[in-house]
Structures are given as structure tokens and as C-alpha cells.
């Protein structure tokens, strides 16, 4: 029987890297979840057990923590790019590196209206993340950055319709011109290049996604996502494409008529399962090649 080793990668997943800056009494915190992986010629490690070319996952973990101190943590994209280049330098057998970083945000606790110097409360709508893929070294190096946000839970209490859909003998859904639209949005956008002010771009894209969700009069979640994605591509030349995964968090009107009570769109049951899952990609026509940007990105069409 002929068999062979297929695609493979290895690394340390979910390093919880917390970096405190304490040069002054007013501390700063960065709180990351870092996953690293190398791909390349690791055939022998699998087929014969020869680990000569394998930079241990433990070393990858150590590097993630050491760089948090030695190089500091700026934008997560820069941290990920620096780590990826380091692993390719340290591991001759590797042809590519994938570094995924999530960032949990904290804000200062207010005490008597004043921001505390070293006490924080977890904050933020949504979790910022990035996935950096680097192929090759030196003149052959190519770097791809996909950044995004997950767990961005949004709801609008009107301004959403759903009607005119295809019907067959199993269709029971009523048409509606006024419903709740809610989702826990995952959005990831691919940058066209790496000369980007990452923090500024992230803040602006997030704000734009939220404002378009609010202002687009929705005829379907599909149309809302396309509108949100188009706005990002129109206003952000640095973004080549954007992908969404959006569970339609259904809110069903509760029938209060058995109790003689009218319910004109006021009391709903928030169902957690099942949910419609709407996924879409919006791409600039002249976008550059996506290369390995989307390698192993689960949960997207
Ligand atoms: O925005 C929606 N898109 C759908 O495709 C769909 N299907 C469904 O039952 N409800 C909805 N809502």
C-alpha cells in the first residue's frame, strides 16, 4: 500500500502572554493569546522519528514570552510578524510560519472618578485578532496579514426585514417587515500589504463595521454583511478583502394572546440554537494574490 505524509504543521497553541509595563507607577497591560506554527520539510520527524530539524514547540513558546520582554509588544500584527521571521531564521527546515494572536482588552478601574494606576477591568466589545503567515526568507519572503474581530455582539431592535424569500411545502417562516437583527460577528480582513498603521486601521474598520450595522436598513443579514464589507473596502485602500461569519441570533416574538395580552414587538425569546449561519466574502476586484493568507482559517467560507 502506497501512503505518504500530507499537509502538516506544528507549534505551540494558545500561549497566554501577559506583559505589564511598569516603568512608571501607572502600569500598562497587554494580554494576548498567541499560537505559533511552522510548516516545511518535516517529513523525517513524522516518518522516521528523526527530530533533527524540529525547533521544539517549547522553544516557540519561550520565544513568544522572551520577545514580549525583549522587544515589547506594539501592535499585535508587528509582534506576530517579528515572531514569524524569528522562527524562519531559527528553523532552516521551515518554509513558512503562521502566527495567530488574539488580544483581550482591559480598561482602568475608575476610583472616585479617577483612573486607577494598576487595577483593570476586562473591557471591549469584541476580541481583536490577527493571523500572520510568512513564506520564505530574504528576497523570497512574502508576508500576509489577516486581522479581524470576533465576538462582536450587536443587535438592532428595528430596521430589519425579511420577506420575499423562496417558499416550498416545508416553509413555515412568516414574512416580516420589522424584526430584531442580532449576531455575534466574526470579521477578518486581509491587508494588501504590510506598511500599515495597524492600530489606526483596526480602530477605524471596527468603528465603520458598527456604524454600518446600525445604519443599513436590513433586508437580510446577507445584505447587511455585504454593505458592511463594501464600506470597509471603499474607505480602506489597505484592505484587499473581508470575510464574515455571522450567526443569525433569532429573537422570536412570544405569543401572549393566550393570556389576552397583545405583544406588538416587545417581548421576545432569544433562541440560542439552531441559528442561521450567514458567511460572505467581499473582495476588491483588483486585489492582489491572497497566497497563504487564509491557510488553516477555520470557520469561513
Ligand atoms: O437574514 C436572514 N437571512 C436568511 O437567509 C434567513 N433565513 C431565515 O430563515 N431567516 C433569515 N434571515
From TrEMBL:
Name of the molecule in the record: Uricase
Domain of life assignment: Bacteria
InterPro entries: Uricase (IPR002042), Uricase_CS (IPR019842)
PROSITE patterns named in the record: URICASE
Record EC number: 1.7.3.3
UniProt keyword Oxidoreductase, yes or no: yes
Free-text function comment from the UniProt entry: Catalyzes the oxidation of uric acid to 5-hydroxyisourate, which is further processed to form (S)-allantoin.
Catalytic activity: urate + O2 + H2O = 5-hydroxyisourate + H2O2
Keywords annotated in UniProt: Oxidoreductase, Purine metabolism
Classification lineage: Bacteria, Bacillati, Actinomycetota, Actinomycetes, Propionibacteriales
Keyword presence, Zinc: no
Amino acid at each position: 500500500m502506497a501512503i505518504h505524509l500530507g499537509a502538516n504543521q506544528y507549534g505551540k497553541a494558545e500561549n497566554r502572554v501577559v506583559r505589564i509595563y511598569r516603568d512608571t507607577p501607572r502600569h500598562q497591560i497587554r494580554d494576548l493569546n498567541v499560537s505559533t506554527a511552522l510548516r516545511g520539510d518535516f517529513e523525517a520527524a513524522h516518518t522516521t522519528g528523526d527530530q533533527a530539524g524540529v525547533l521544539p514547540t517549547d522553544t516557540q513558546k519561550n520565544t513568544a514570552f522572551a520577545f514580549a520582554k525583549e522587544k515589547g509588544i506594539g501592535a499585535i500584527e508587528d509582534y506576530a510578524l517579528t515572531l514569524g521571521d524569528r522562527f524562519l531564521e531559527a528553523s532552516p527546515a521551515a518554509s513558512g510560519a503562521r502566527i495567530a494572536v488574539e488580544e483581550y482588552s482591559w480598561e482602568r478601574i475608575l476610583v472616585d472618578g479617577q483612573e486607577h494606576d494598576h487595577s483593570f477591568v476586562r473591557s471591549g466589545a469584541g476580541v481583536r485578532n490577527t493571523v500572520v503567515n510568512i513564506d520564505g526568507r530574504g528576497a523570497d519572503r512574502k508576508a500576509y496579514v489577516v486581522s479581524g474581530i470576533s465576538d462582536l455582539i450587536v443587535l438592532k431592535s428595528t430596521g430589519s426585514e425579511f420577506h420575499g424569500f423562496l417558499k416550498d411545502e416545508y416553509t413555515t417562516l412568516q414574512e416580516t417587515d420589522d424584526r430584531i437583527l442580532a449576531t455575534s460577528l466574526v470579521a477578518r480582513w486581509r491587508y494588501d500589504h504590510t506598511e500599515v498603521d495597524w492600530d489606526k486601521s483596526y480602530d477605524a474598520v471596527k468603528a465603520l463595521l458598527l456604524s454600518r450595522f446600525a445604519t443599513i436598513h436590513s433586508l437580510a443579514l446577507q445584505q447587511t454583511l455585504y454593505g458592511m464589507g463594501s464600506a470597509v473596502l471603499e474607505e480602506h485602500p489597505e484592505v484587499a478583502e473581508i470575510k464574515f461569519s455571522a450567526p443569525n441570533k433569532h429573537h422570536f416574538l412570544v405569543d401572549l394572546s393566550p393570556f389576552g395580552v397583545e405583544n406588538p414587538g416587545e417581548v421576545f425569546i432569544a433562541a440560542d440554537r439552531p441559528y442561521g449561519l450567514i458567511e460572505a466574502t467581499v473582495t476588491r476586484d483588483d486585489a492582489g494574490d491572497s497566497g497563504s493568507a487564509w491557510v488553516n482559517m477555520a470557520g469561513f467560507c
